[in-house]
Each structure stands twice: as structure tokens, then as C-alpha cells.
Amino acid sequence: MQTMSHSSLKKGLGQQWEGVDLTLLDTVDSTNDWLKSHSGDLPRLVVAKEQTGGRGSHGRVWCSPPGGLYWSLETTFLDRLSTALPLMVGVSIAQVLQALGFHGVGVKWPNDLLVNGAKLGGILVERVYDSRHAPSVIVGVGINTTTPKIAPLIQGRSVVGLDSLRASDANPLDGDELIGRMARAVLDATSVPADALEQNLQAQWSAFDVLNGQSVKIEQPNGDVVEGNAVGITAAGALRVSTAAGESVFYSGDCQLKSL
Predict the structure, then answer these.
(1) Which part of the chain is the BPL/LPL catalytic domain (predicted)?
(2) pTM
(3) CB atoms within 10 A of CB 107
(4) Which of 249, 237, 241, 259 is nearest to 111 (CA)?
């Protein structure tokens, strides 16, 4: 699916974002870490065929074998980093995939892409404060492409690749152009004030929310575990959970569907 082509990435990014600085790598430890250690003009996009030290939320290892779609985008910092940002990134990516015929993609709060409970991809958002440029944010994305390549690497978790989400007779898709389209959608969605981003998320979230009405458990940073039913998000992107003691709101934490 991926050939590492500047022209395909540029095509996906479109005319508005044709000035995005591009870096293509065969192998890297982490695309997010690469951006942190290399200076450049913003916005900038780094794409890799393989990550040897990919990571997700809470420091978890993200399996990144050759052939997946691994990319990180660094762009200007919003006026404030909202909890809604990774959710809006997820919705933007899901919309692109849906438009291209990859059906059933949803977003699990706060940063996973799922299809029928199986993990398709993940999102890692990190703030950067660097004296060489204005404050910025790095959005890292990893998406599975071929299920058989990734499934054996993750034990105890259900995973899925893009290959199983389109009709077998569908036209082949250029992976680099797809990355460009996803990056363009993220840039479009995040190039607004935080208040506008939150309003846009409220209008679009319900169509992709895989947790709404589901029984969940949330492990908080202090180790406490709360169980209840997810009932959507707040205006700022925090998860709302109905518990026996009433409604609780979570701005961070590890959330899992109890059925998984």
C-alpha cells in the first residue's frame, strides 16, 4: 500500500498544504521522537515504513512492522491544548477512511481507532516547547494495513487492518496519498481556535463514538478503577460515565470496554 512517494503525499495534502515540510524514512525508532530531535519549519510531516520503538498512550509499545501507515505531524500549538484534540484527530481520520470506502471505523476515547471492537490504529498527541520556534503540538498516528502481519504481534488484543475493510475488487489505494489526505484533514481540523475545535467535535463525535451506551472501566492515573456506562463527552472532550454514585467526568485515564 505504501511506496514512500513525495508526489503522492503532496497530492493527498492538496494545494492548501503543499508547503508542508516532508521527511520520508525507511526505518525510525519513533516518528514523534524524530520530530522532537530534528528542527524544521512548521507544519511538517514525517512518514516511516517501519518504527522500531513506536509507542502509544501510557508509554505502551505500539507494534509497527513494515507495511503499516506510520506518520507524525507537527503543527502550530492551539491557543490551549484541549482534551478534545486527539478526539478531533480521530474523527478527522475516520471521516477520510469512511469516504474512501473503509467502513465501520469508530473512535474510542481518548485515542484509538476501532472497527467492531478490534484496534485499527492509535493516536498520540504531545506538546512541544522549543526555543527554536513557537509552541507546537505533535500528532502521531499508526494504522494497521494488513491484519495477518500485525495480529501475531499483539497477544490478547483483537486487531484489524485496512485490507479487510474494503471490497476485494476495490481499486488499489496509494498509501502515501492516503497519509497525505489524513494529514490534510488533521491540519484543517486543528487550524482553528480551541473553542471552535470543541464545537466542531460536539457536532461530529456521536457518529464515531464507539463507547456511547457501553459498559466501560477506566483506570485513573492514581490506579483507581471506575466502572459504569459511557454517556458521551463534555464540551471539552472529557469522557462522561454514569456510575452507581452518579455521573463522573474523566479528562485522562485508560478506558476499556468491559466486553473486550
Answers:
(1) 6-194
(2) 0.89
(3) 26
(4) 237
Pairing of strands 69-76, 215-219: unpaired
The CA distance from 74 to 65, in Å, is 23
Q: What is the pLDDT of residues 189-218, one digit of tens each?
A: 999 888 899 999 999 999 999 999 999 999
Which grid cell is 228?
459504569
CA distance 125 to 229: 26
- 11 close to 30: Cβ distance less than 8 angstroms: no
Query: Three-state SS for 129?
Result: coil
Q: Which one-letter DSSP state was computed for residue 171?
A: P
Map residue 43 onto helix, strand or coil: coil
Domains annotated on the chain, with CATH: 6-207 (3.30.930.10), 215-257 (2.30.30)
- Using one digit for the tens of pLDDT, what is the confidence trace for 77-123? 776 777 899 999 999 999 999 999 998 999 999 999 999 989 999 99
C-beta separation of 179 from 71 below 8 A: yes
d(CA 123, CA 57): 8
What is the rounded CA–CA span in Å between residue 162 and residue 3?
16
Beta strands in the chain (DSSP E): 21-28, 44-51, 69-76, 105-108, 112-115, 118-128, 136-143, 215-219, 225-233, 239-243, 246-250, 254-257
Q: How many CB atoms lie within 10 A of CB 106?
A: 21
- Please check whether residue 27 is in contact with residue 49, taking contact to mean a CB–CB distance below 8 angstroms: yes
